[in-house]
Write a structure and sequence with these properties.
It contains 14 helices and 18 strands. By secondary structure, it is α/β, with parallel strands linked by helices. The chain folds into 2 domains: 198 residues, NAD(P)-binding Rossmann-like Domain (Rossmann fold, 3-Layer(aba) Sandwich), CATH 3.40.50.720; 227 residues, Dihydrodipicolinate Reductase, domain 2. Helix 2 crosses helix 13 and helix 3 runs antiparallel to helix 4. The radius of gyration is 24 Å and the shape is globular. The relative contact order is 0.14. The N terminus is likely disordered. The structure holds NADP nicotinamide-adenine-dinucleotide phosphate (NAP). The site of NADP nicotinamide-adenine-dinucleotide phosphate has 20 residues, from helix 2. The site of NADP nicotinamide-adenine-dinucleotide phosphate (NAP) has 20 residues, from helix 2.
């Protein structure tokens, strides 16, 4: 071993895992193979995450980053490209990040070739063997599929075909699979089957980067490490739950991709289902990977299948027209680049979900997500039952609303409890006021980027924040009837102006109650 190499700081890394203990310590050496090394995700998320992790001492002690792509560049070009990217991503941190990558002995290699060409994998095998022998990668490999979804199975087959998927004793071979995982239930089943021909389930890390957000994980902390919330987390006290995932952006440069996805596949099948599962699941015996995932799967199994007879009442689809967001005029969806002028893809979806179990029977979960809404906000709101009787004179309690507990996932991460307080002075009047907890104020450090967490946990072998095979299939099971009904044109597509909270019809979802959407 090189004498100038510093000892690995395994302890500090182990402390970062969800349950506070690492399933196994981070490898002393590893290779990170990025399929799609020249792409948008790698540049915007993965390379800056690696640099930030290097500063925090969260990388394997010897790391070789091997890029794969068709673009004809060499090792030095790739090295320079990554350094340029991190310099642009965070100009203030650039020197510190570059120095840390160097100090941590991170090395860059590049394999030019197509993923559907077996020759590419022969060359990759040679590069990896050299990385093990000369650069201390120690036979540990993390394959990151940051490429187009059509190539996920092809890449897995290529790796297995070149003998790169099976784990030698004392080493790991893991494959990180980006979203989307399939485009419907049959394709997700097929992708699972194909991956399993090449990798065992424990080697497969399916990403939902939402899970890697600190505030999503905080749903676990809030619910299961405090005594005061859980007793109130059920049908006896909760009237209904709202989940809002709102974006002010349109489809940006991803029009072609979004046309095939729509809000259902882009947000609901993955992020919303994960947030729903964490919000509604039963307490797990520990925060380790399988106990948490067991409970999430159990919850997803309890989601009542959509009733085809009620789809028009329980699901509202929308698409934005031109409008104004944050004071800036913006085009309608059908005028966006890469979008058909007569597109019927939904950019907004609101739905009522029922959960058939003892905890939640009769408590509707209202979900809404959309693009070009007034602001970017993700939050979960538990609205409690109104008090049975108000011992106040008429007029003194006009503005008393039922209590709400709001879990703000982004931005301004935090928690807010809305309750009634007396207005100072007389006569006796009450008003709803917020009690707030802000992450930023409580902890004097920025939460890590989700992709740092993704990479760290994948290196550590902690799968808690990744989606298990049965979880991904359960969430596709829930949305498949909607995919079919949308394709048959059975659910109308309503219009909304960009910059508004979606189609008017979304308010009708709460038709059999006095409920209203919370204005975040
Ligand atoms: N971008 C995001 O913000 C984002 C967010 C969440 C998830 N994702 C997911 O991340 C993945 C990558 O997305 P992206 O936006 O980064 O896509 P992208 O910019 O189009 O990049 C695709 C990458 O795949 C490589 N590639 C394409 N065909 C190839 C082939 N036949 N052989 C070898 N390499 C090939 C391209 O490299 P060459 O052209 O050099 O071959 C490029 O590096 C997708 O699954 C996407 O859904 C992306």
């Amino acid at each position: 071993m090189n004498a100038e190499v510093e000892p690995p700081d395994v302890a500090s890394i182990a402390a970062e895992t969800v349950d506070g203990t690492a399933a196994e310590s981070v490898a002393i050496g590893a290779a990170l193979v990025v399929f799609g090394a020249t792409g948008d995700l790698a540049h915007r998320k993965l390379y800056p995450a690696l640099a930030s992790m290097a500063v925090k001492g969260q990388l394997p002690h010897r790391l070789v980053v091997v890029g794969v792509g068709r673009t004809q560049i060499d090792d030095d070009d790739f090295d320079a490209e990554v350094h340029n990217t991190i310099a642009k991503a965070a100009p203030d941190h650039a020197p510190e990040w570059a120095e840390a990558l160097d100090r941590r002995h991170v090395r860059f290699r590049y394999v030019a070739g197509s993923i559907d060409d077996p020759e590419t994998f022969s060359r990759l095998a040679t590069v990896l063997a050299e990385a093990d022998k000369d650069l201390g990668a120690a036979g540990n490999r993390l394959y990151y599929l940051a490429t187009i979804p059509e190539l996920f199975e092809v890449a897995a087959r290529g790796l297995a075909g070149a003998g790169l998927s099976s784990e030698e004793p004392g080493t790991f071979r893991r494959i990180v699979v980006e979203k989307p995982f399939g485009h419907d239930l049959p394709s997700a089943i097929e992708l699972n089957d194909e991956l399993h021909k090449c990798f065992a389930e424990h080697q497969i890390y399916r990403i939902d980067h939402y899970l890697a957000k600190e505030t999503v994980q905080n749903i676990l902390a809030l619910r299961f490490t405090n005594a005061i919330f859980e007793p109130l987390w059920n049908r006896r006290y909760v009237d209904h739950v709202q989940i809002t995932v709102a974006e002010d952006l349109g489809v940006e440069h991803r029009g072609t991709f979004y046309e095939k996805a729509g809000a259902l596949r882009d947000i609901v099948q993955n992020h919303v289902m994960q947030v729903l599962a964490l919000t509604a699941m039963e307490p797990p015996p520990s925060f380790a990977a399988d106990p948490v995932r067991d409970e999430k799967v159990k919850l997803l199994r309890s989601v009542r299948p959509f009733d085809p007879e009620r789809l028009k009442r329980d699901v509202v689809r929308g698409q934005y027209d031109a409008g104004e967001v944050n004071g800036v005029p913006v085009p309608g969806y059908c005028e966006e680049e890469g979008v058909a002028s007569d597109s019927t893809t939904e950019t907004y979806l609101a739905m009522r979900i029922e959960i058939d179990n003892w905890r939640w029977a009769g408590v509707p979960f209202y979900v809404r997500t959309g693009k070009r809404l007034p602001k970017r906000v993700t939050e979960v709101t538990l609205r409690y039952h109104a008090v049975p009787y108000l011992p106040l004179p008429r007029g003194a309690a006009d503005s008393v609303e039922p209590n709400e507990l709001v879990l703000r996932i982004q931005p301004d991460e935090g928690i807010m409890l809305l309750f009634a307080a007396k207005v100072p002075g007389s006569p006796f009047r009450v008003k709803t006021v917020p009690l707030t907890f802000s992450y930023k104020e409580a902890f004097d450090e920025d939460p890590p980027e989700a992709y740092e967490r993704v990479l760290l946990d994948a290196f550590l072998g902690d799968a808690t924040l990744f989606i298990r095979e049965d979880e991904v299939l359960q969430s596709w099971r829930i949305v498949q009837p909607l995919i079919d009904a949308f394709a048959r044109g059975e659910v109308p597509l309503y219009r909304y102006a960009a910059g508004t909270w979606g189609p008017e019809e979304a308010n009708e979802l709460m038709h059999d109650s006095d409920d209203t959407w919370r204005c975040p």
